[in-house]
Specification:
There is one protein chain. Helices cover about 35% and strands about 30% of the residues. It is an alpha+beta fold and about 240 residues long. Strands 2, 3, 4, 5, 6, 7 and 8 form a 7-stranded antiparallel β-sheet that branches. Strands 10-11-12-13 form a 4-stranded antiparallel β-sheet, with helices on one face. A two-stranded parallel sheet has the order 1-9. Helix 2 (about 20-45) packs across helix 5 and helix 2 (about 20-45) crosses helix 7 (about 190-200). It starts with a helix and ends with a strand.
């Protein structure tokens, strides 16, 4: 069972990886791996519960006990396959203090020429929702992100604050679960940079033997081989 159906209480993603241009790829390379870690940690806390947003209180609640401050990023309409940012004039009303991260993403998109972040409505696939959540999770150091399902909609939110204990992930978790799922979602321009950034953020010491990366943390060791186009060839 993959992260998509475990975390988001939705069907597993079966489509091809989302091909990213350089601007979006840079963000996925920088934030995607650590965002995946955070989602596994969230799953330990909430299980398969779906969150309920209380916009008046600025919080999202899972079951009886778990509640977190929330930022609303935008809403995906399933029938039309479009995503509408929370700051858009046509989006259902959201208090201004709950769309600050969405507005910052808009500003980043305008500054860096990334249309997906600055265009209020765009055609989207479900993988775009994971990308948006991952970017917000990393850029704003959010605790995690969540997809809130409605009848014909999925709202993307980031969770900020609260007590989510980091899940201890083994080397085998990284090589068998986290990285394969991450790479199955997004086709990134520089996979070598993505792996290097992720493992460095997890405090691995990185050395290189030609195109082979050797990452060590204590007694743990991970090896990754890349081709001349910086694509991941093997991982162990």
């Amino acid at each position: 069972m993959g992260l998509s159906d475990r975390i988001f209480n939705t069907e597993a993603i079966s489509q091809e990886p989302l091909k990213l241009d350089k601007g979006l790829s840079t963000l996925a390379e920088l934030y995607g791996g650590i965002a995946m870690d955070k989602q596994w940690s969230l799953q330990d806390v909430i299980g398969n519960k779906s969150g309920k947003i209380n916009a008046a209180k600025g919080r999202i609640k899972f079951g009886l006990w778990h509640s977190f401050p929330v930022q609303i990023l935008g809403t995906y309409t399933i029938s039309s396959k479009t995503f509408l940012w929370a700051w858009a004039a046509t989006h259902p009303f959201v208090p201004s203090d709950l769309i600050q991260q969405a507005l910052q993403l808009k500003s980043y998109g305008i500054k860096n020429g990334i249309g997906m972040l600055s265009k209020e409505l765009f055609t989207a696939e479900k993988l775009h929702l994971y990308l948006i959540g991952s970017i917000a999770s990393g850029m704003f150091d959010a605790s995690s992100y969540h997809l809130v399902k409605g009848k014909d909609s999925i709202t993307v939110v980031s969770l900020n604050g609260g007590t989510i204990k980091n899940k201890k992930l083994t080397d085998q978790d990284l090589t068998d679960l986290v990285i394969p799922e991450w790479f199955s979602w997004f086709e990134m321009v520089d996979e070598r940079n993505a792996i290097n950034t992720y493992l460095t953020a997890k405090n691995y010491e990185i050395t290189w033997e030609g195109e082979e990366m050797v990452a060590r943390l204590g007694k743990d060791e991970i090896r990754a081989v890349f081709d001349g186009e910086r694509k991941l060839v093997s991982f162990s």
